[in-house]
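Hi support team,

I'm filing this because I wasn't sure whether my run with protoporphyrin IX containing FE finished correctly. The job status page said complete, but I'd like someone to confirm that the output block is well-formed before I use it downstream. Pasting the exact inputs I used:
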Amino acid sequence: MSFSERGGAPPAELARYSFAARMLHWVIAGFVVCQIPLGLYMVARGEATNFDAETGSLYSLHKLLGFFVLWLILLRVLVRLRRGAPPPVATLTALERIVSHAVHVVLYMLLLVVPLLGWAGISAYPALDVFGLFDLPSILPADQALANRILGVHGLLAQTLGLLAAVHIAAALYHRFIRRDGVLRRMWPLR
Ligand code: HEM
Ligand code: HEM
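And here is everything the job wrote out:
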């Protein structure tokens, strides 16, 4: 028996992001949330200890995780371009739609540019070594002055990404606990 036969309204189907988009969102969010404090800590520790062996390992970890997450981000952008996003939640005002869309676009741009600049920076430095085990591929010829400038921008944009992600998380929590409008459920990894 269908809902209309029983006389009730059909259950409101919540439009959600695809399974792939949801998984990639949370895995990448986890990496970014680790990479920012790790990056800040390793740089501060390098200055305080004159770059001791542990600092070198932290740099290796940061480079390896960042290099790995770059490919996940590329995959995510492809998934997004192919599969699109569910239509916006009906309760959002026109301004909220514009602002949230703009924040998402800037987040995607920073997610791509930040690791690419990190990779370009260590290529130009060159500091491609990971745990003394292997080298990451190089994408720029050696030029230390250029490397320092690129890594400076990498750090600045990574901090901008952190700030924007904090605003984004605050907005998600506002929708979950104040507006209670199902925005978080669209991206929730489970059912
Ligand atoms: C989403 C990915 C990444 C995030 C969020 C991130 C974040 C950061 C942050 C916050 C810093 C500290 C900046 C500072 O204190 O000035 C940093 C530094 C650094 N990152 Fe990344 N990073 C990412 C990917 C990468 C990748 C892929 C590489 C290289 C393969 C890399 C290499 C470096 C290096 C070498 C530094 C030190 C720069 C310096 O000594 O001034 N990062 N990163
Ligand atoms: C606790 C942490 C987080 C929560 C609760 C959260 C929640 C959400 C939600 C609910 C959406 C869907 C919004 C909508 O339906 O329009 C979304 C989308 C998005 N989130 Fe997050 N997020 C978190 C962390 C992050 C982080 C750290 C990043 C990256 C730095 C990120 C990047 C994005 C992007 C780019 C989108 C747009 C998805 C698209 O339309 O393709 N999120 N997030």
